[in-house]
Write a structure and sequence with these properties.
The structure is a homodimer. By secondary structure, chain A is an alpha+beta fold. Chain A has four domains: 2-94, 2-Layer Sandwich (Uridine Diphospho-n-acetylenolpyruvylglucosamine Reductase, domain 2); 101-219, 2-Layer Sandwich (Uridine Diphospho-n-acetylenolpyruvylglucosamine Reductase, domain 3); 223-336, Alpha-Beta Plaits, CATH 3.30.70; 345-393 and 402-430, Alpha-Beta Plaits (2-Layer Sandwich), CATH 3.30.70.2740. In chain A, 37% of the residues lie in helices and 20% in strands. Chain A is built from 17 helices and 18 strands. Chain A has helices at 2-16, 25-28, 52-65, 119-128, 145-150, 158-161, 164-167, 196-200, 234-247, 259-268, 297-310, 323-334, 336-343, 358-372, 403-421, 437-443, 446-459; strands spanning 21-22, 46-47, 69-72, 91-94, 101-105, 110-114, 131-132, 168-174, 180-182, 209-216, 218-219, 223-231, 251-258, 282-290, 316-319, 346-352, 377-383, 388-394. In chain A, the strands form four sheets. The first copy, chain A, has a seven-stranded antiparallel beta sheet with strand order 15-12-14-13-17-18-16, with helices on both faces. Chain A has a five-stranded antiparallel beta sheet with strand order 5-6-10-8-9. A four-stranded mixed beta sheet of chain A has the order 1-2-4-3. In chain A, a hairpin with a 4-residue loop joins strand 17 and strand 18 (388-394). In chain A, helix 1 (2-16) runs antiparallel to helix 3 (52-65), helix 9 packs across helix 11 (297-310) and helix 10 (259-268) packs across helix 13. Chain A starts with a helix and ends in a 13-residue tail after the last helix. In chain A, 56% of the residues are buried. Chains A and B meet through strand 9, helix 8 and helix 17 of A and strand 9, helix 8 and helix 17 of B. Chains A, B: Pfam families: FAD-oxidase_C, FAD_binding_4. Chains A, B: It comes from Sphingomonas sabuli. Chains A, B: Belongs to the FAD-binding oxidoreductase/transferase type 4 family. Chains A, B: One of its GO terms (molecular function) is catalytic activity.
Chain lengths: 472, 472
């Protein structure tokens, strides 16, 4: 293996120059650990191609030599999906040099971005032509298009625009044998067999390397209304969502926040204060948008919330009166994780259940977890309208050093069992990576797992694509 | 093979009763030929399960005995996708007894339909709860959900709502090893590895049998505007579409019709007359809808078309003043194929190219085909906004008996070459089936084809699922 990896590094440097394979420890170091510091791996080099042709040549060579590759974009995986194996057998494969926006067509509402394009940059480029790429999430300043595709990323605007799966019009992919699949023409209809594009979305780099994506754009937001509502429980929150959806199709953000999650943010994050005067057990952050300047969603949201208060769905609500107020409301949502970390250790579970079942599930799961793990506090926030919440279990004030390592795995299995019994998913939007691999193997229906493994073995028979992740 | 098939028939009858395996010639006969009479096959029986459990048991047994199965829904394939092989080695596998609508939830905008549910019945059931399943097409009275999923069907409302791929929230599938994949919970977010659902959509029954689908519903149409416009050329038609899309998101049908296509309908179909007084080289049928009773799309479409006439995009236009007039306009669109058949033999090509390229492609392809095949007339109609047209080549008045058999394959290859050179698809919405199998093998990029074959071999190693179709 050592010889083969060295040979690959040398060949790549000879053919594509010194930049194409970095072996300097200082250059490697930041990419050997995931951003939260939970996983650490080893690798002798980062291969860093500058074009699809270089990717294809390197993958072909890696296949011939039997050297596994770990594709990496912004290294923002929540599940160790971009961290190499600890034994140093694989090389990192960075797409960051491939960061061109190849095309942006406002008429056709399409952009073609290389894998290394950073999400925030795509947002800016789309805005410059009067369009918007609607998917967004906390890591937008560093996550890349290739990673977003490979993890079928979600985020806060899924309610209206879907996950990456709904936003990808076509992919360019280097398959594990080095062949280039080119689906970038952005055909809206194409029924020539199984969709290679769809198979690669969410494959976490285990079936090939996404080198570019044709992405759908939508009209730019001209005006938005951002509101905050206090509700009695998650059931009321879901009824509020249905109440609004029946009356408008402009709601694109609908985030549930627990009262204690808000309290932590107020306690720990400077400048954050509660948007409402009274205390509420649960809160909802709502965003409605308009793509035309002549429609102001603010009065509409005010009216809808007024009706909801009258109907007893909402206890109290406020609508941001300025863009600054709107940003302040979103800042609360975006700081929940940070506030939680400041409070102490916790375990994080990215789960989904059918939307209608989520209110009941939340209440029951919280009670079950807190009973099974005395002293813990279960809390939740996230994308109620998608049936996807970040269900977190905090250690509690008495927790001792090493709590996460000691209690984490047991809590994870407990929560995953509850989710599975509820017909839900143990990974709604973060993927499997290395963190949830054992849980997937434990809980996936055997027939499904056999199909996933068969696909992996068929397309990557040498096992060179992102070893140790998903079913690899 | 004979013994094995007999054994399978006997076992199925013993376990599941005589209805589960019909061998009567009269019962078999209609299903041995495709509806257009282009393909004919042989089979000794139709297996006809009544439940998912029966499907799983029969598929498992067929796999053990090595007897291939040909899944069949409404038998409305355009490419021989549901017609068994001529050698009689396979059994038909009808999903028609599985025709229950298992659930319909207006709040969640979801229906769960078994594979044998007929599209028109789903339309009716959704309407009864104030919702709509938006996909529709000519064969709606006989095509089934299983077939629509398995061919990733399109139709006339794709512009706004997408193909089946966008409307499937989850699938129940019996995999070739007899395992049941259950994706019906309709999770909006689920990142547990490669999407088996997406892989089965458009797989034409070659990777397993779709037994049920969770399908997205949308609000019912309260009011609609249907309009007809005469335009100079396809480029003007596409500009008209962009003109409308910039001003409203309510356009859901936008069908291009050539002047000579309309003339054939007027000539051959009783009761059809041209909607406009003057002559126009090209026509567009437009439908805009409103989901609320308080918005009437008719004045909006009138205004938009008025502006388009002033801008020189449209030569003349009319908006239906009643539901009867609206239906009459759609009747013209729906009778184009019948009119063409009345005129004489023709070849049909279901093609797509990138939307922006379609106007130029159409003009150039028509000229190229008519030059290469003297006496023919190339014409087109269909879904311009999706980049998908039905490009048809008529024999011309002088054509002699046997024209289709003699000239068809050469014309098909010629058109497929043009489409491929233009970066398009030789099958936009009809699939590959047996009709386009050789063309797929000839024209698909070798790397893509290798991936499709690897997936097929991995999931169906015994080759029992719909042999002779796609890459099977």
């Amino acid at each position: 293996m050592t010889d083969a990896a060295d040979r690959l590094i040398r060949d790549v440097q000879e053919r594509f120059g010194p930049k194409a394979a970095l072996t300097d420890r200082a250059a490697l170091e930041p990419w050997l650990t995931d951003w939260r510091g939970r996983f650490r791996g080893e690798a002798r080099a980062i291969l860093s191609p500058a074009s699809t042709e270089e990717v294809a040549a390197m993958v072909h060579l890696a296949g011939r030599l039997g050297v596994p590759l770990v594709p990496q974009g912004g290294n923002t995986s929540m599940v160790g999906g971009a961290t190499p194996p600890a034994d140093g057998s694989a090389l990192l494969f960075s797409l960051r040099r491939m960061n061109r926006l190849r095309a942006i067509d406002a008429d056709a509402n399409l952009a073609v971005a290389e894998a290394g394009v950073i999400l925030a940059d795509l947002h800016d480029r789309a805005a410059a032509v009067g369009r918007r790429f609607p998917l967004t999430l906390g890591a937008r300043g560093s996550c890349t298009i290739g990673g977003l595709v490979s993890t079928n990323a979600g985020g806060t605007q899924v309610l209206r625009f879907g996950t990456m799966r709904a936003l990808v019009a076509g992919l360019e992919v280097v398959l594990p044998d080095g062949a280039v699949h080119n689906g970038l023409s952005g055909l809206k209809k194409d029924n020539r067999g199984y969709s290679i594009d769809q198979l690669l979305i969410g494959a976490e780099g285990t079936l090939g390397i996404v080198t570019a994506a044709a992405l759908r754009l939508v009209p730019a937001v001209q005006r938005r209304a951002v509101a905050w509502a206090g509700v009695a429980d998650p059931g009321a929150a879901l009824k509020l969502l249905r109440h609004m959806e029946e009356r408008t199709d402009r709601v694109e953000g609908f985030e549930l926040i627990s009262g204690d999650g808000l309290a932590l943010a107020v306690d720990h994050i400077p400048g954050i204060r509660s948007p409402l005067n009274g205390r509420h057990a649960w809160h909802v952050l709502i965003e409605a948008t308009s793509a035309t300047a002549d429609f102001d969603p603010v009065p509409m949201v005010q009216d809808l919330l007024g009706d909801a208060i009258e109907a007893g769905l909402v206890e109290d609500a406020t609508v941001a009166a300025s863009e600054a107020q709107a940003a302040a409301l979103w800042r609360i949502r975006d700081s929940l994780s940070e506030a939680e970390r400041a409070e102490g250790p916790s375990t994080a579970h990215d789960i989904s259940v059918p939307v209608a079942d989520m209110p009941r599930f939340l209440i029951e799961a919280k009670a079950a977890v807190e009973a099974a793990f005395p002293g813990t506090v279960a809390s939740a926030f996230g994308h109620l309208g998608d049936g996807n919440l970040h269900f977190h279990v905090r250690a509690g004030r008495q927790a001792r050093e090493g709590w996460t390592a000691r209690e984490g795995p047991g809590i994870e299995r407990f929560v995953d069992d509850l989710v599975t019994q509820a017909g839900g998913s143990i990974s709604a939007e973060h993927g499997i990576g290395q963190m949830k691999r054992a849980e997937l193997a434990r809980l996936a229906p055997p027939g499904d797992l056999a199909a996933l493994c068969a696909i992996k073995a068929a397309l990557d028979p040498r096992g060179i694509m992102n070893p140790g992740k998903l079913v690899g």
